[in-house]
Amino acid sequence: MKEIRLLCVLTFFSFFLVNSEVNACTTFCLQDGEQLVFGRNFDFPVGYGHVLINKRNMRKSAMVRPPEKPFEWTSIYGSISFNQNGREFPYGGINERGLVIEQMALNSSVYPEIDDRFGLTELQWIQYQLDNSASVQEVIASRGHLRISPQSVAGLHFLVADRAGNVATIEFIGGEMVVHSGESLPVTALANDTYEDSMGYLENFSGFGGTREIPVSTAPLDRFVNVAASLTEYSGEDPVSYSFDILDRVNQGQETHWSIVYDITNSEIHYRTVQNPEVRKISVSDFNFGCNSPVLYINIDEAPVEGKLRFNPFSPKENEELINKVWSQVEFLAPIPVEVRKYYADYPLSVTCEQKKI
Q: Are 74 and 28 a contacting pair, CB within 8 Å?
């Protein structure tokens, strides 16, 4: 009965998420010689969140329901992620090998049907890639044994980049993974329309084959055009600062709660929030990712103390409070009952350290 109740609630949750237009977002990559940076605006009704330090050698299991097959894995890499739905369900992040993955809403996404491969829901799929992939190619190759489950609650697509300078968009069109990379990715950006539609729209504008002026608008296709224009206008400024300028150009006011710039080459994260506009920096090299040390987190709005961000050991209580705080403040999430919130909040208690591999 509990499983049936949970299934009904998650189906309800799925209906409201997929039919919502509020989770927009914009991403891009900027290459300056050997330096690659990745910019991301997070647009949503609320900005509460945690930055999490995820450990390697952690044994995990898929949070899916039958008929999906049980799936377990052990994280190979540590990572730093940005989360609103609790630990292990990130919106994006960077791992210690320099892989960055971020998601954006794409309501037309259709995930693959259940087949012989294992299935993960969309946000756990992101954590799996941070746990196991060192390159864009490894993310793409994982489709041989893994797919995003149709049990997922939101239609998303993804921008992925790695330290070697590879960048790709990953979308799910008609139940198939569609990848753009290399020559098929002339503009390394993504908003809330398919990459194909975005490039088709871009051709209408001056500098890209058309005659129209670059639009002053934050509509999804117009954000893509503005990012494309900004990337072509880049002339050697500091790439991190310039990336924040691009994010300002496509900012949606109070809807844009987080602006994040990953300096992939130097394994650093620069970020700011509406509640705390000071740009803060996190260096991947500052953390011990061995699972014999505690998983750490910090509230995303928290300011440095004496110039340093103070991370705390992961707290199941704080995890549950985050989920309640976010879901209660979003109209289409507020009806989700206590038992489902608890289900997500308690999931990390099932994640264990494999000490022998440290």
A: no
**Please, what's the b/e burial string for 247-275 (b: 16 or more CB within 10 A of its CB; e: otherwise)?**
bebbbbeebbbbbbbbbbbebbbbbbbbe
Q: Is residue 110 part of a domain?
A: yes
Q: Is residue 125 part of a domain?
A: yes
Whether residue 6 is contained in a domain is answered as no
| Chain CA centroid to CA 13, Å | 19
CA distances from 95 to 13, 62, 130, 218, 291 (A): 29, 20, 6, 30, 15
Over residues 179-202, the pLDDT tens digits come to: 999 999 999 999 999 999 999 999
351 is a domain residue: no
pLDDT of 119-161, one tens digit each?
999 999 999 999 999 999 999 999 999 999 999 989 999 999 9
- Gyration radius (Cα) of the chain, Å: 19
Question: Using one digit for the tens of pLDDT, what is the confidence trace for 7-40?
Answer: 444 544 544 444 444 568 999 999 999 999 999 9
**Angle, to 10 degrees, between the axis of helix 338-346 and the axis of helix 316-329?**
140
Structural domains counted in the chain: 1
Give every strand in the sheet of 167-173, ordered side by side.
176-181, 167-173, 156-161, 100-105, 90-95, 79-83, 50-54, 296-299, 312-313
Q: Indicate which CATH number applies to the domain containing 123.
A: 3.60.60.10
Q: 223: helix, coil or strand?
A: helix
Note whether 78 and 54 are within 8 A (CB): yes
Write out the residue range of the structural domain in which residue 298 sits. 23-343
What is the amino acid identity at position 186? P
pLDDT of 115 above 90? yes
